[in-house]
Amino acid sequence: MEFLVGVLLGLTAWFAVRVLVMGVYTVDQNERAVKTRFGRAERISETATTLDDPISESLAPHERERYCYPQVRVIPAGLYFKMPWEKVYKVSIATSTINMALDLQDPSANEGGTKLEAVTKDQLNTGLTGQIRYRVSEQNLYAYLFGIKSPIVHVMGYFVSVLRQKIANFEAKRMAGTTDPAGLPAAPGADVTGVSINDLRKNLRDLNEYMDQECRSAAARYGVVLDASLITGIDPPEEVESALAAINTAHNQVSSDISLAQAAADQKIVQSRRAVEIETLRAQAEIEPIRAMADQLEQMHAAGPEVLEMYLRSVKVGLFEKAEKVYREAR
Questions:
Q1: What contacts 98, CB < 8 A, 6 or more positions away?
Q2: Global pTM?
Q3: What is the rounded average pLDDT of the residues 17-33?
Q4: Nearest Cα to 74, choosing from 149, 143, 141?
Q5: Lowest CB count within 10 Å: 68, 84, 95, 148, which one?
């Protein structure tokens, strides 16, 4: 009898420890949790999926069926209780930073995770350095916890593939056709572009913005939000560094000569325009008195022939007074 009482007390104590003590758990402020019951995650509803959430708007139509995950109930920070047949999965939602050249499956790759190699459109091997800032998506915890075995590895592979594809086809934005102050087209050669590495270096901001836009679907795919890609360096091979420096020097010299020639041409055109305006105003100033006289003579003629004759007689008298000699035709 005492043995049975001891067994019952032992079972009671075990049950109390297992259920009451070990069933209490906490979720920190920078964490979120998902609870499973008999291995099945708690869902918001049986029909709600991530396709109903705005995070799936960035998916292509052919990807929506593939990346369709159920919406699970997310447990926020706090103190909670669970039963023995329930299991809690916690994830940190804090923003993390990782080297973009780091290979999580092979740490020795990419020169020990320090430089990512990519090929440009003119077949030059470049070394890329930078970082990726990411965080776990609360809207798609199912994909992060249960849909993919190694979500960060998938995200890194996806990011690297998109980046290498962009590097291989990158072209700098060409300025729209501009005109000089005289309204003429820009001089030939004013829009000379360099090699692809120069374009990449000059347009790092555009490249980072492109990567941010292309990786927006990572949240719907893998449950990871890429906050930003920070590509900070693009280094060409050592054997072509000097050649690139020479190309850049020549390109800068050509651009400088074109700018100086265009500025001189603009100045001459402006001076020519001013000269034409001055001569036009001078001609107009000479024409105005003649027009005024013609209008006055027309008014005199309209008043009567004798008025015009009297005016002509007075004009002749004034001219005769100023003349030293007068030659008249003999009749």
A1: 131, 132, 134, 152, 156
A2: 0.62
A3: 82
A4: 141
A5: 84
